[in-house]
Amino acid sequence: MLRQSARLLALVAGTLLPLSEAVAQEPAAKTAGPAAAKTDPKESPLVSTEWLEKNLDAKKVRIVEVSVEPGVFERGHIPGAQNVVWHTDLVETVSRDIAGPEKFTALVRRLGIDRDTTVVLYGDNNNWFAAWGAWVFAQYGLVDNVKLLDGGRKKWEAEKRPLDTRSAEVAASGFTPAPASSALRARFGDVLAVAKKERDEQILDIRSPDEFSGKIIAPAGVQELAIRAGHIPGSVNVPWGKAVNADGTIKSPAELKALYAAAGIDGTKPIITSCRIGERSSHSWFVLSRILGYQARNYDGSWTEYGNAVGVPVVNLAGTVWGGK
Amino acid sequence: MTDRLAEGALPLPRPHAPAGTAARALPRRLAPAAIAAGLAGAAWWLAGQPGGTRLALSLTFGALFGFVLQRSRFCFYCLGRDFLVAGDPRGLLGILAALAAGLAGYAVVLGAWMPDPAGTRLPPDAHIGPVGPVLVLAGAVFGAGMAVSGSCISAHLYRLGEGSPTAPFALVGTGLGFVLGFATWNPLYLASVSEMPVLWLPRHLGYAGSLAAALGLLAVLAWALLRHLPAPEPRPAVRPDPLRAVFTGRWPVWLGGLAVGAIGALAYLRVGPLGVTAEIGGRSRQAAGALGLLPERLEGLDSFRGCATAVRDAVLTPNGLFVGGLVLASFAAALAAGQFCPARPTGSQVLRGLLGGVLLGWGAMTGLGCSVGTLLSGITAGAVSGWVFGLAMFAGSGLTLWLGRRTGLLA
């Protein structure tokens, strides 16, 4: 099931890709300021492939791959990278939750990561699950030292940079986690309060337009469904892939600001990102929170929690009932 | 060993007499060269496409596999039959050689990928399946299908390239058998498969222990078989021409076996475990789904390792290219060796192909792979499921052959 979900997630990513390519062909208004900031890893939440290749042997850098497709890491990864399996390492496998403090601490210690380590996360599918990894890391206080490799695997491979199949051996760290923070994670109650207009926040739904309108409940073949179609009242739709260029890199801050401003999101109000199971929305959370510096939380319950809840307000533009008309 | 014997089960192509004229010899050389060049060109083109490396490698490995299978006539059933009927163990020794080479190659790869095999993880996409009565049943039915149709699925594929009159029907039957397998999957899964353990030997014995145990078992089997070796044939007075030995004469099966084991380990390193049924199964599932012949949900199926039949979303898939490369390379090899002999199928060939194919398909679906995907790729990865499927498969084919010969239905 997990394997199939992973494939389907990959499929969804694939269908979104042409969208991002089409958007990328628009004239890019790149400004010198933010682009320059990107190159300084201390300041920026992104590191370039060029920077990473020069710093492969740096002592305080740990490289971690979080990919969707099983076997991708093992058949060739960035030299020195370690593997994290998103659907077992970063979650609780019985109850629905992110990895608890004990499990997360054990993982991070094994990876040799501490608070003064620069962690570079990357993965396939435009860093989709790498961004989700960054969100989970952030729950336990690893925020500013965690970076994404801009462009992820796709760009590293396209630039024909070296890959390695050997596993890295690192000394374990003595990391102790900060208590899980609620500042970056939205819960059902938070979202419901926004839906009922009891709280003045914005919900960014990053699913496909057809899921948002309620025409379909979930992408074809996905097993984890909701009982109702549509979206949370008051949310706006910007599919996550629109934040990415054709080469897999994240768009410039100016382009991103324009993209979200067009949907009415400009950072003046707190934002909650949401999707189907909370993974794709982590990518948009990363963009909003880490790159644009907006106050953003990710709602990992997403539509599979909200769309299954009893007695909550729903907007169903398409009028889909039980998956049909 | 003995095309002569295998021919008893299935009419096999016979090398043509050497072409008398240059006019006849030229196309025989040109056509295979053109196919080989076409395959190489296709792989070259695929490798240049975004994300096409895996597809290009799949096509290449498939072509190499097809060439090796055709040249050494590596057919699990015929090799077993050589021993059971004629007492010649060299074919089975070739299978043991494939397993030994594959085991060594996999150990090198797995040791690098998962330095500690003791945890709860399994190596990525290695064919390690649940072990229980359903696997035994799947292996036995697959074996029966081999005996009825004359070979296993991979051998039908290389024989398709030789123009075999049975292979097309056996492959159609395999597709039907897959649909039947999907239809019976849910009850079998709920009654048994869901509770059966997925056993991986390195987790319990370590890599060295598991490799030593498997090689030890192969050595015991080889020792038993070696006692039945036939008397050596008189050496030819003239030194064989190396080109003829590679492209026209039959390779010794042990040589083919070593190549199969090496291709298996290299393919696992770069693309994935060898298997020939994922594409057939996936396309059958797609077609049956479109016709409304599938259960709404196939419980747990896509979470298992093995020849995954999850519905395809692309025209070109790695396994599709692997199988395509296999058939085309076998076709080229058969042309070069003068072993491409298409024939009009007889009623018996159609019937045996379809019936045996249905059994092969049901067994391969229920067993999550065939003699390549579950037996070869499983045993070499250290999976108990590979051994169990293999034993059941040889038992099923041996028993069916024995019954068939007693009743006069099988040769």
From TrEMBL, chain A:
InterPro entries listed in its UniProt record: Rhodanese-like_dom, Rhodanese-like_dom_sf, Thiosulfate_sulfurtransferase, Thiosulphate_STrfase_CS
Gene3D superfamilies to which the protein is assigned, alphabetical: Rhodanese-like domain
Q: Which domain of life is it from?
A: Bacteria
Question: Can you give the residue ranges of the Rhodanese domain?
Answer: 57-165, 197-315
Q: Which UniProt keywords apply?
A: Repeat, Signal, Transferase
Q: Where is the signal peptide?
A: 1-24
Which terms in the Gene Ontology molecular function aspect does this entry carry?
thiosulfate-cyanide sulfurtransferase activity
**Per its record, how is this protein called by name?**
Sulfurtransferase
Automatic annotation (TrEMBL), chain B:
Q: Give the matching InterPro entries.
A: Sulf_transp_TsuA/YedE
Q: How does it sit in the membrane?
A: Multi-pass membrane protein
Per the record, the major location class is: membrane
Listed under GO cellular component are: plasma membrane
* Region of interest (Disordered), residue spans: 1-20
- Is Transport among the key words of this record? yes
Compartments where found: Cell inner membrane
**Residues passing through the membrane, by range:** 30-47, 53-70, 91-114, 134-155, 167-185, 205-226, 247-269, 321-341, 353-376, 382-403
Organism's domain of life?
Bacteria
One Pfam family this sequence matches: Sulf_transp
The UniProt keywords, alphabetically, are: Cell inner membrane, Cell membrane, Membrane, Transmembrane, Transmembrane helix, Transport
Q: Which family does it belong to?
A: Belongs to the TsuA/YedE (TC 9.B.102) family.
Q: By what name is this protein known?
A: Sulphur transport domain-containing protein
